[in-house]
């Protein structure tokens, strides 16, 4: 398995270097590669997003079934499966495409983490430096790996170094954009359940924390991929907007009544 991963990684590096020879920019090479991957994965991701929208549309009817048959689990399961069948919904359809995509995305991630970009920058973004390392360089902290605690100490020791915004601003802005796109994707997915509100804010913040130490090349890939994902999700949501606005016919009788 390790040999397969290495061969696939070497192949991706050849592609990136080939794109660099055409564009003379590692930033553009990463963007083009990201777009190609998103296009190849479009059928799977589109199926996943469409399934999510259908499941969201059925939530009111699922809640009615859960209330109506709360004391009869067997009947509840049968009614839920019948509801899915009538609406041509497969609950697993939203998960399986994601499982297929994950190995490809992980491979891209690993390649970009270890690729030698020769100190390249793109639109003010250091493709090899992270938000932490570029901030550390701005305030004159020692070179090499540095943690958040050491960075804060360095900033307190030399706050004037933050005036060197050209050294870290690109990476920092990209990080904020990624966090925003993550939050916005959750809003598009209709994650309005009050129980999920904490996660809607926690996940973008947690992701931003993780991204603090990631190289700018990885953030560029992540940001472009997220932007394409938001556009695709908005398109899917727009197409199903009319269906989602229709009030589903739940039951003629109220849940718990004697008649079905």
Topology:
Blueprint: H1 2-23, H2 26-40, H3 42-57, H4 59-68, H5 73-86, H6 96-114, E1 121-122, E2 125-126, H7 131-138, H8 148-157, H9 169-188, H10 197-211, H11 216-239, H12 241-245
Helix pairs in contact: 1-2, 1-6, 2-11, 3-6, 3-11, 4-5, 9-10, 9-11
State the gist of this model.
The chain is mainly alpha-helical.
Measure the end-to-end span.
55 Å
Structural class: mainly alpha
Please describe the biggest sheet, giving its number of strands, its sense, and whether it closes into a barrel: 2 strands, antiparallel
Strand elements, count: 2
Radius of gyration in whole Å, from Cα? 23 Å
Shape assignment: globular
* Major β-sheet strand ordering: 1-2
Counting DSSP H or I runs of 4 or more residues, the number of helices is: 12
Keywords:
260 residues; mainly alpha; two-stranded antiparallel ribbon; 12 helices; 68% helix; globular
Explained architecture:
The chain has 260 residues and is mostly helical. 68% of the residues lie in helices and 2% in strands. It has twelve helices and two strands; from the N terminus they run ααααααββαααααα. The chain has a two-stranded antiparallel sheet with strand order 1-2. Helix 1 packs across helix 2, helix 1 packs across helix 6 (96-114) and helix 3 packs across helix 11 (216-239). The relative contact order is 0.13.
């Amino acid at each position: 398995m390790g040999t397969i991963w290495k061969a696939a990684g070497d192949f991706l590096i050849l592609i990136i270097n080939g794109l660099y020879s055409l564009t003379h920019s590692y930033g553009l090479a990463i963007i083009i590669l990201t777009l190609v991957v998103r296009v190849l994965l479009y059928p799977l991701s589109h199926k996943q997003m469409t399934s999510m929208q259908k499941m969201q549309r059925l939530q009111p009817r699922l809640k009615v079934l859960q209330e109506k048959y709360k004391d009869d689990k067997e009947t509840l399961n049968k009614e839920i499966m019948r509801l899915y069948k009538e609406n041509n919904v497969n609950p697993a359809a939203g998960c399986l495409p994601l499982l297929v995509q994950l190995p490809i995305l992980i491979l891209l991630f690993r390649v970009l983490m270890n690729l030698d970009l020769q100190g390249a920058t793109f639109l003010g973004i250091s493709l090899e430096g992270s938000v932490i390392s570029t901030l550390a360089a701005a305030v004159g902290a020692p070179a090499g790996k540095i943690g958040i605690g050491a960075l804060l100490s360095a900033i307190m020791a030399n706050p004037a170094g933050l005036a060197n915004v050209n050294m870290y601003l690109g990476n920092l802005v990209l990080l904020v954009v990624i966090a925003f796109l993550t939050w916005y994707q959750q809003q598009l997915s209709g994650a309005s359940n009050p129980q999920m509100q904490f996660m809607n804010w926690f996940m973008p913040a947690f992701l931003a924390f993780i991204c603090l130490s990631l190289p700018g090349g990885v953030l560029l890939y992540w940001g472009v991929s997220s932007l394409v994902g938001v556009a695709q999700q908005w398109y899917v949501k727009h197409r199903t907007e009319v269906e989602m606005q229709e009030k589903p016919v739940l039951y003629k009788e109220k849940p718990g009544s004697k008649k079905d």
